[in-house]
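G., the chain you wanted modeled:
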Amino acid sequence: MIYISTLLRSATAILAFLSTANTAPTPNNVCKRAVAFDYNGDKVRAVNLGGWLVLEPWITPSIFEEWSTTNTVLDEYTYTMTLGKSEALSRLHNHWSTFITQDDFSAIAQAGLNHVRIPIGYWAVAPVEGDPYVQGQLDFLDNAINWAREAGLKVLLDLHGAPGSQNGFDNSGKFGSIEWQQGDTVSQTLTAIENLSNRYAGATDVVTAIELLNEPLGQSLDLDGVKDFYRNGYGRVKAASSDFAVVISDAFQDFSSYWNDFGSDLADLILDTHQYQIFSPEQVGRSPSDHVSAACALGPQLAGTNKPVIVGEWTGAQTDCAKWLNGLGKGARYDGTFPDSSYTGTCEGKYTGTVAGLSSDDKNNIRSYIEAQLDAYEQRTGWAFWTWKTESAPEWHMKDLLAEGLFPQPLSSRQYPGQCG
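Predicted structure as tokens:
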């Protein structure tokens, strides 16, 4: 009887332990495992989840439509300021819940990709007193990391917006003046990096890389200060976990030369360059074959760098036609509706539309251009397409480009082989 009683007590204790183990939350709802990614040997094949946890009017114009004629709401900062925290949080929670789901991660993996690059704003991880932004994004980021784990994907976390704005673009959270590097903005950014790194230090099986800051506008900043920030940010990330790789933006400087002498003493350092051919009159005036040639020319430049380089943003677009791509209410260089531009061609079907609705010529040109970029960018570390989905910008919508056969499947398939020699 004593023996049976002892067994019962032991069994009860074991069941209690198992119950606790099954229900107790892991830190930040993310489990620790131990896997890495070889950024020196393997190819990064990724897509960005743009417009999800950091708003961009051109990706989700419906969110901004009610202010389309007032020029008062241009970005996430003015969106939350205008609505107030309660209403903004309600609307954004619905957007975060629906725009990207676990099904998207499954589809990304099925397409043969191995990474997602996820933009996040400083305000999600280190809010600054007085800012109008709302929080709640991290719950969805936690979900994303678990979804990535289940799908077999790695995650590159990208700090997309810094206090004061590092570039003045709406995708930094705040359109207008560049005030990063003034006051406490750099130290506040480092706090955001530290918080983000600490939160996911136990998830380096999935979160393999952290990007210190997206697209600081080097020509408008103190570049020595940017380099100091990179070194300090690198230290914060590595202090959280030595298993993180650290990604730095080229800050719109020549990726093939400017950064070669930087960080030779820093292990696991990756350079991120963004390659678009649509943001100047000369670029949108190129013929489709000129776009392909320009993409192919990047391959040897990438191959010649002395550290891993990811083309962390690029597109199938050969025009800037997408609605509000150049800012809410602004037109396009391609059709001459942007200030100081001239007409190159029509934006019909590309201002808003679907991939299926594009002309045959547009479809062929996009497929050819995408293939050339894949061939060029894999001459070094790899790539991350911008972006997985949009509401109405067909040239940028990877999910639909895949569905319509304009993005190769498998990724090695070529309808236009040998374009880059």
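The beta strands are 44-48, 115-121, 154-161, 207-211, 245-249, 269-274, 309-313, 382-385.

Shout if anything looks off.
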